[in-house]
């Protein structure tokens, strides 16, 4: 795909990914004991939708802008995600700032919870460090996200989430994700792993999911949202999340949330899919 995320901030793919992340973190917060989050491809933390880069594509207009306009009619499960966006932009303020995964996570986490961020791009990691300079429980490291799995797992909190959300700049990214999950799960089999992926060419997704099944890992949930017919691979037709060890009833909640998001996005094609790739 080869992109800097600022061009796509707030797009429908961000909406889907961050809605799922927020639902997972909200459930982790149900228990009083602290938890940890490792974000392997963190980006810069927050994005200015008024920037020239975001204005160039305008993808947020078909994504988070539509969602916020329809927010009052969306399921209650989305409230933490939507409230975080409102808080970031100020009460009653215009929609200018969009939280990347690190900022969204930190807004939903408690002071006692720990956030670990890995980012390889040298300029982005400096921006990320500035974003969290005053946050003692957030660590920013300049390193390859896949190497971070070996460096930091298992998390000392013994519960939490690993988000693997690469930019898909290399043709073997699906294969690298499978290997990363196998490594991470081997080191921390009870952790929640969330893997984002694009849907452009369906056979590539099938091969990816077949490879996941062959790892022998149990409790693998698939959630997908598409907004176009899958009749060409020359555009981004949708995206998906693989969730390993999902929190209780996340699957049933997503079966309500994702169709609601699809409707709020005004998509005339595609749809939502939630099913178990590998059950318990």
Automatic annotation (TrEMBL):
Its EC number is 2.1.1.266. It comes from the Bacteria. Keywords: Methyltransferase, RNA-binding, rRNA processing, S-adenosyl-L-methionine, Transferase. It catalyses: adenosine(2030) in 23S rRNA + S-adenosyl-L-methionine = N(6)-methyladenosine(2030) in 23S rRNA + S-adenosyl-L-homocysteine + H(+). The record marks 3 as: Interaction with substrate rRNA. The active site is at residue 165. It holds the Pfam family RsmJ. S-adenosyl-L-methionine binds at residues 18, 41, 101, 119, 144-145, 165. Belongs to the RlmJ family. Monomer. Specifically methylates the adenine in position 2030 of 23S rRNA. This is Ribosomal RNA large subunit methyltransferase J. It comes from Skermanella cutis. The lineage of its organism: Bacteria, Pseudomonadati, Pseudomonadota, Alphaproteobacteria, Rhodospirillales. The gene is rlmJ.
